């Protein structure tokens, strides 16, 4: 009894003692409170991790940026971490209230560059790669993702040949022409998806755009990388409290640089004076103005949700945009969304990334700018209406306003992509991944012309006409990879090896019919027309595919942060190539040297970073028709057999070429990256030289032994070289004021070394059909050894007293046009490719205000002013003509002729964008940030060119430099516009 009591007593005393100790310890703990805000905008930061240094004890800030944390005895320091911000260590204040501001870690974000199949530290990159992050994107409302970096990357030409037409994308070309084929654009890779669809990208969903410019960077993409590679990375969620971001803008456009045709009053006055032999119908009509959508208003909305934990993060966005063109019946409405999820497991060894994106596009394609010339040249004393109010029609022209009311041309399109990447850390430094993606792009076009329309009356006996076309494109990609990283002492090795499988299939259907009894069905019931049984309806379909597989690898080595080397090899096979050349090898090697880390520069205080790079790489091009190397069976027409039955005949309609192979480009690149004066001045310089061989094109073949006149084969060589400069400067940095200046500059020359080999001979290449009145032929000719883009034509020698043309002959004498020989007397008279490209961005920040001024220009090239050639000549009367037909060209009294008389200097400098923004200094728990901005686009152009906006004249491909108000030679004119935009960015 006594012993038991004694044991019980000891237990109770011990428990009491422990309780007292706990109470004492608790009384020594300290409750820390505070608030975390952004250093720039003083806005609350939710989701910041607040941890007591040296312990695992921590918490996260609430939506209003506040936190509460119990600190044990002896705790002295808090550690604040947040994705995208600099890590901050702050002593615990004596009062217990510790408020801090965190600065964005912009340098760290820019230090990582996206490269093919991975990322690299910027200081370790040995190739010519330019990366543009979201904060540097253009802010004038992108119609296409590539609009965001127009003028931002030296050597990358982005030209909107269709102006502000919402249904056309820009022409893209990197470091000049690389092929004789139509597509000159670089390979687009979106979140790892090769051949990614730009329609799936909205400006506020893009994190960065990296451009692999030289062969040593692009070789890892093999036969699709001759024209360079553009890597687009979309935004992903980050750990922290849920975030909601809403971005919107409204844009209004106004026409400018309208071609100066005779006004109705001027035309009538010249009829009265006898200068124009025509009838004054008594009306005074501004026909082009009838096609302009003066009420145009573009709107864009993007709503994004993001957040997550350390193990799982997400970002989801939905958007809607209605892009109204400055021309009537020219519009693009689209909506869609994007979902990104990243999840980790197995103690962070397993990572899964999933992306899903879709875009629904409803486009009105009835107007694309090609119909403008019909109303510019319409006799302006006429009316589009008859006296009874019906539409006026005539055989020699088209009533474009009536067309807009009586015809339809609509597109319904849906594009969807899904991709997933799963990665597993096998052992330390070794990671295995598998990436898979599928993209589905389908569209249906429908066209209809009313029974009362001009097209129907003049072509289809007033019975209505309908057509429907559809296309489905499917792209599949599977790419397993192994990544290895090792750091030992001063050595760092990173390597990636993988396999790539891609399969693309394209199929389509089209049909048309006429002979409709009413206009109720439009193109939705083609069978309602009566021409099927008569054999006058059309019907067609197609399907083709191609497969590409590859094995690739890259090794990067860094020693002591001073010396870097990289090697790439890709072995690739494609079903497009001939049976004797299915496979090709694409190697690359590059090296870099961080000079600033050497002892001999250690005392040069103004140098922050100085690196030299040298790279060599081989890439290819397989962008030509599927089955081009094979003999294809085609229809030859229906014939009646002895049994009286009509049957279709078949035969070969292509020539096979078992030796057809990829185009090959070998490229050297020397570069310098630099940062001086503690980050106040930085940039890069690149010099490149490249040679493209085995150019793929169609050549005339011998019949027999071949069965067709043309054959796909490899003939020809291009050579090009150039210089690219980028400069980033902090021009001024004061307490409340900062001024940054960014400059890009590039120049390149292009030579065609040969068009011929032992089998196929061609001494020159003609391109650039002028179109319009008369058979004016081609404006461009390139001889072997000559420059691309050369204008080739007659040399103007003046007019005779009666206004007839005179041109120089080879011997210096002059003569009329019919005495000038195309091959003997004509010569190179100009060049259509700009010698120099330049841009400048000035960014100013004063307290909560920001101002961005962006200018760009092209210099040293010529433009063929086809407007003056075709409509500045009185020979075009009685159609309306330019005012210059009676002023500048008043003496001309002859036929239409192409010569250097119509070549003009196309150089220009454009004030392309001015954006004024204000960050509203909200201080509440509901609104995280708010920015309102106003942007003016295409505000002014300094140029001596008298035609359309020279910025819209094509400067890429094989047909540059030809201005147009017609659809000839793949050109689409569109009125130049000045735009004004009001935007809002707000975060919750």
Describe the structure.
There is one protein chain. This protein is mainly beta and 988 residues long. The chain has nine helices and 51 strands. The protein has a 22-stranded antiparallel barrel. The radius of gyration is 33 Å and the shape is globular. The model is unreliable at 1-5 and 15-27 (pLDDT under 50).
Approximately how much beta-strand content do the residues carry? over 45%
Distance between the termini: 70 Å
- Overall 3D geometry? globular
> Which parts are unreliable, with pLDDT below 50 for 5 consecutive residues or more?
1-5, 15-27
Give a quick rundown of the structure.
The chain is mainly β. About 10% of the residues lie in helices and about 50% in strands.
Features:
988 residues; mainly beta; 22-stranded antiparallel barrel; five-stranded mixed beta sheet; 9 helices; 51 strands; disordered N terminus
SSE layout and pairings?
Elements: H1 2-28, E1 30-38, E2 49-52, E3 58-60, E4 66-71, E5 77-81, E6 88-91, E7 100-102, H2 106-111, E8 112-115, E9 118-121, E10 129-133, E11 156-159, E12 171-174, E13 187-190, E14 193-194, E15 206-212, H3 215-218, E16 229-234, E17 240-256, H4 264-273, H5 287-291, E18 298-308, E19 312-324, E20 331-345, E21 350-364, H6 372-376, H7 400-406, E22 407-427, E23 430-449, H8 454-459, E24 465-488, E25 491-514, E26 538-559, E27 563-574, E28 583-594, E29 607-621, E30 633-640, E31 646-652, E32 663-676, E33 681-693, E34 696-700, E35 710-714, E36 717-733, E37 737-754, E38 764-769, E39 778-783, E40 790-793, E41 796-799, E42 805-808, E43 814-815, E44 827-831, E45 836-846, E46 849-859, E47 862-864, H9 866-871, E48 903-905, E49 908-919, E50 929-943, E51 976-987
Parallel strand pairs: 1-7, 13-16
Antiparallel strand pairs: 1-4, 2-3, 2-5, 5-6, 8-9, 10-15, 11-12, 13-14, 15-16, 17-18, 17-51, 18-19, 19-20, 20-21, 21-22, 22-23, 23-24, 24-25, 25-26, 26-27, 27-28, 28-29, 29-32, 30-31, 32-33, 33-36, 34-35, 36-37, 37-45, 38-39, 40-44, 41-42, 42-43, 45-46, 46-49, 47-48, 49-50, 50-51
């Amino acid at each position: 009894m006594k012993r038991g009591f004694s044991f019980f007593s000891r237990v109770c005393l011990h428990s009491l003692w422990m309780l007292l100790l706990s109470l004492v310890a608790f009384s020594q703990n300290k409750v820390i409170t505070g608030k975390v805000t952004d250093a720039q905008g003083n806005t609350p930061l939710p989701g910041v991790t607040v941890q007591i240094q040296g312990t695992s004890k921590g918490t996260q800030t609430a939506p209003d940026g506040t936190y509460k944390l119990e600190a044990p005895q002896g705790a002295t320091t808090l550690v604040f971490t947040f994705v995208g911000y600099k890590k901050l260590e702050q002593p615990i204040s004596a009062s217990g209230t510790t408020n801090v501001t965190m600065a964005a870690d912009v340098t760290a974000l820019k230090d990582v560059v996206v490269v093919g199949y991975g990322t690299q530290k910027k200081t370790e990159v040995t190739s010519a790669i330019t990366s543009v992050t979201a904060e540097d994107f253009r802010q004038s409302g992108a119609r296409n993702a590539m609009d965001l970096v127009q003028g931002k990357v030296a050597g990358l030409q982005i030209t909107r040949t269709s102006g502000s037409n919402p249904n056309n994308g820009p022409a893209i070309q990197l470091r000049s022409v690389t092929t004789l084929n139509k597509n000159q654009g670089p390979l687009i890779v979106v979140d790892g998806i090769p051949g990614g669809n730009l329609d799936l990208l909205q400006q506020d969903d893009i994190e960065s755009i990296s451009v692999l410019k030289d062969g040593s960077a692009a070789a890892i993409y093999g036969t699709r990388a001759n024209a360079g590679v553009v890597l687009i990375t979309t935004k992903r969620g980050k750990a922290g409290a849920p975030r909601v971001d809403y971005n919107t803008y409204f844009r209004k456009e106004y026409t400018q640089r309208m071609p100066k045709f005779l006004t109705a009053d001027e035309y009538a006055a010249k009829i009265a004076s006898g200068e124009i032999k025509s009838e004054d119908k008594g009306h005074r009509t501004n026909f082009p103005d009838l096609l302009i959508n003066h009420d145009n208003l573009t709107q864009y909305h993007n709503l994004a949700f993001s957040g997550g934990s350390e193990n799982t993060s997400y970002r989801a966005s939905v958007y809607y945009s209605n892009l109204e063109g400055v021309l009537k019946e020219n519009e693009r409405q689209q909506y869609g969304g994007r979902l990104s999820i990243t999840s980790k497991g197995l103690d962070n060894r397993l990572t899964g990334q999933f992306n899903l994106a879709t875009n629904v596009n409803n486009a009105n394609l009835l107007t694309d700018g090609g119909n403008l010339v019909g109303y510019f040249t319409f006799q302006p004393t006429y009316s589009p209406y008859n006296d009874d109010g019906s539409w006026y029609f005539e055989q020699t022209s088209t009533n474009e306003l009536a067309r807009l009311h009586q015809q339809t041309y609509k597109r319904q399109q849906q594009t969807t992509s899904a991709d997933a990447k799963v990665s597993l850390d096998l052992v330390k430094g070794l990671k295995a991944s598998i990436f898979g993606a599928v993209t589905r792009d389908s569209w249906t076009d429908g066209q209809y012309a009313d029974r009362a329309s001009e097209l129907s009356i003049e072509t289809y006996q007033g019975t209505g006409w309908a057509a429907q076309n559809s296309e489905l494109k499917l792209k599949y990609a599977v790419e397993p990879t192994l990544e290895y990283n090792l750091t030992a002492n001063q050595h760092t090795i990173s390597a990636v090896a993988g396999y790539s499988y891609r399969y693309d299939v394209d199929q389509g259907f089209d049909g048309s019919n006429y002979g409709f009894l009413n206009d109720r069905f439009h193109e939705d019931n083609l069978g309602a027309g009566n021409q099927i049984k008569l054999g006058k309806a059309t019907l067609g379909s197609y399907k083709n595919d191609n497969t590409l597989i590859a094995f690739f690898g890259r090794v990067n080595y860094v020693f002591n942060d001073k010396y870097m080397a990289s090697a790439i090899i890709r072995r690739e096979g494609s079903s497009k190539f001939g049976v004797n050349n299915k496979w090709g090898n694409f190697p690359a090697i590059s090296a870099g040297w961080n000079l600033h880390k050497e002892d001999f520069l250690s005392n040069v205080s103004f140098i922050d970073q100085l690196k030299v790079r040298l790279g060599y790489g081989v890439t290819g091009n397989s962008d030509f028709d599927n089955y081009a190397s094979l003999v294809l069976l085609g229809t030859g027409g229906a014939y009646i057999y002895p049994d009286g039955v009509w049957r279709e005949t078949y035969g070969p309609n292509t020539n096979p070429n078992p030796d057809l192979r990829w185009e090959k480009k070998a490229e050297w690149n020397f570069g310098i990256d630099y940062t001086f004066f503690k980050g106040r001045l930085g940039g890069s310089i690149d010099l490149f030289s490249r040679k493209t061989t085995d150019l793929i094109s169609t050549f005339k073949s011998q019949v027999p032994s071949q069965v067709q006149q043309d054959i796909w084969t490899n003939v020809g060589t291009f050579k090009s070289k150039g210089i690219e400069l980028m400069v980033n400067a902090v021009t001024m940095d004061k307490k409340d004021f900062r001024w940054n200046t960014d400059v890009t500059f590039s120049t390149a020359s292009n030579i065609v070394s040969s068009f011929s080999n032992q089998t196929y001979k061609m001494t020159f290449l003609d391109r650039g059909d002028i179109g319009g009145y008369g058979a004016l032929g081609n404006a461009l000719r390139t001889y072997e050894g000559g420059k691309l883009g050369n204008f080739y034509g007659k040399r103007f020698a003046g007019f005779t007293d009666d206004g007839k043309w005179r041109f120089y002959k080879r011997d210096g004498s002059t003569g009329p046009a019919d005495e000038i020989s195309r091959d003997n007397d004509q010569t190179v008279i100009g060049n259509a490719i700009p010698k120099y490209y330049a841009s400048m961005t000035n960014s100013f920040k004063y307290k909560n205000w920001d101002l961005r001024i962006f200018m760009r220009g092209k210099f040293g090239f010529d433009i063929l002013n086809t407007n003056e050639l075709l409509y500045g000549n009185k020979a075009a009367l009685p159609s309306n003509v330019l005012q210059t037909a009676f002023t500048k060209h008043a003496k001309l009294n002859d036929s239409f002729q192409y010569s250097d008389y119509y070549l003009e200097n196309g150089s220009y400098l454009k004030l392309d964008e001015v954006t004024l923004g204000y960050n509203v200094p909200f201080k509440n728990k509901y609104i995280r940030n708010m920015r309102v901005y106003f942007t003016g686009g295409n505000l002014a152009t300094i140029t001596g060119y008298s035609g359309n906006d020279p910025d819209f004249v094509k400067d890429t491909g094989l047909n540059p430099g030809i201005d147009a108000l017609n659809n000839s030679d793949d050109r689409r004119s569109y009125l130049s516009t000045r735009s004004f935009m009001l935007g809002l960015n707000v975060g919750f």
